[in-house]
Design goal:
Layout (H helix, E strand, L loop, with lengths): L6 H9 L11 E2 H8 L15 E12 L7 H10 L5 E4 L6 H12 L8 E4 L3 H10 L4 E5 H9 L3 E6 L24 E5 L1
Parallel strand pairs: 3-4, 3-5
Antiparallel strand pairs: 1-7, 2-5, 2-6, 2-7
Length: 189
Amino acid sequence: MSGGGGGKAIAYMIEAADRLDNTLMVNSTPIIIRSLTGVFPQSFRDLTPIAGVVAEYAAFGVPADSPYKSFTDVVEAIKADPSSVKFGGGSVRGGMDHIVAAYAVQQGGGDAKQVKYIPYDAGGKAIAGLLSGETEVISTGLGELLELHKAGQIRILAVTSTDRIEVAPDVPSLGELGINAEFINWRGY
């Protein structure tokens, strides 16, 4: 069940709890973000977490021919002219991809409120927006960008880790760029 950053599923599980014996819901970080921002009346606190099963770093990618060679280039461009860089992501404004981009820019010395963010309905559509030139940078999960990076279609400028990670040894971490903005998206039951 999709929609509302997990809100539809939470509402259904709460309303139908007496009929849903042995039912699990898989969710991730956005359920907390959407609850805390009051997007839906139910809360992640109304559920019983069982286990976190997957964790994935976010990443920032650009088209292969982008003039941006590092994430610090992006931050410097935003500092010089906030309207010059558009981030895209597969979540709503104020959602996870937007927050991660704004946080990384802020920790890099830029103004988080100046981040221009274009929301897409899903990560694949955000990637299409990047490759078509609608946006200059994508903020999304590393897994969505890795194969395109390996194929040379995009360049991953940074992952939101403190150190380089094994699956992307050629990609710098925000930590090594001097940007203290570690972020890991969890998924669990």
